[in-house]
Specification:
The chain has about 160 residues and is an all-alpha fold. The chain has 6 helices and no strands.
Amino acid sequence: MALFTAAEALEMAMEIEKNGEVFYNAVAAKVTNENTKTLFKELAAQEKKHFAFFQKLAGHVQSAPSPSGADYDQYDIYLKATLDNALFSGPDKALAAAEQAQDQKAALQVAIGFEKDTLLFFYDLREMIGEADRKIVDAVIGEEKVHLRRLAKML
């Protein structure tokens, strides 16, 4: 029995993308290396596009079921804790992370950490939803892998 739907996964994906955009824009405004600045500006633009992509997908999936049962509550707590402790769990946390990145290397390392956290989150989430909705989460995972590869290459 699936505990979450693709609609819920996409809602979480949109929040992550929105906060990633905040981080990438803040770091792009701060770094002095032109290649890194360009990369972060591009990633911010891609986060915005991903948000729109996920929002569009969310319009085609079933609404989330009403929460019920101890299993759902347990997974719901787990997912919320995971999301709350992620590097970019909110715009304020994303801005704080950008402020702490004192140089290009630190900024790239923070961004790589965020992308890894995001991938782990979606791989876990993928196992908690129904088989029919997994292809949507797979699309989310594919988009995040592209970001991680570009950041690792720059580092």
